[in-house]
Specification:
With about 220 residues, the protein is of the alpha/beta class. It contains 6 helices and 12 strands.
Length: about 220
């Protein structure tokens, strides 16, 4: 199988992310959203599902031999062989609760990996007009301009991002960790989107980020 270049991959990812972003903005503005719950606790909107289908269709059209790991339509993809294949990793709406509550910290996240190594990715924040992108070995960008992480090396002076699980029972064990970090750092931020948290670390809006998350 001949692999596309990282630039070709990123161009497809950006195009799909922009289309997905436009779709979720229009869906919220038109108040067409319906709400449901995964596993009884995790909020899911109708836009999560429709955008997942939009991105999946675009990838399948461009690269029919590639596999897709999606939070909404294929969360159980975990075979070791599959994870070594050309693999797209997508979260159609990261920050679903923010999205449902009319807040702006919402992102479309699309990445590509081969043989277990991330090659390229894009995180598009449509309500803020910000698009983070990266190609392995070539640095990261915000709206086409190169970005750099903070040089802060002391936790006492660091602004730290974090998040919490939907499962309320799972939060109990996190309280001690949160207390430890909070009393050791400058301050804590809870943005509500892991993808945005990570991008903000990449461009210095946060000095660090911790949370227990899935791939």
């Amino acid at each position: 199988m001949k692999l596309p270049t990282d630039v070709e991959i990123l161009n497809v990812a950006k195009d799909l992310a922009f289309k997905a972003g436009k779709s979720i903005v229009e869906a919220r503005q038109s108040q067409r959203l319906t709400l449901s719950y995964k596993d009884g606790v995790e909020l899911l909107t109708s836009a999560d599902l429709s955008v997942d289908q939009l991105i999946r269709a675009g990838i399948e059209s461009a690269f029919p031999d590639h596999l897709i790991l999606s939070e909404e339509s294929s969360p159980g993809l975990s075979d070791a062989g599959d994870l070594q294949a050309p693999l797209w990793i997508i979260d159609p709406i990261d920050g679903t609760v923010n999205y449902a509550y009319n807040q702006h910290q919402v992102a479309v996240s699309i990445a590509f990996a081969y043989q277990g190594i991330m090659r390229a990715g894009v995180v598009h924040c449509p309500f803020q007009g910000e698009t983070f992108s990266a190609i392995r070995g070539k640095g990261a960008k915000l709206n086409g301009t190169s970005i750099l992480a903070s040089e802060c090396s002391e936790l006492a002076r660091a602004l730290i991002g974090t998040g919490f699980p939907y499962d309320r029972d799972g939060r109990v064990a996190l309280v001690d960790r949160l207390r430890t970090v909070l009393f050791a750092c400058r301050d804590i931020r809870r943005i509500g989107s892991a993808a945005v948290d990570i991008c903000w670390v990449a461009m210095g809006r946060l000095d660090g980020y911790y949370e227990t998350i899935n791939p």
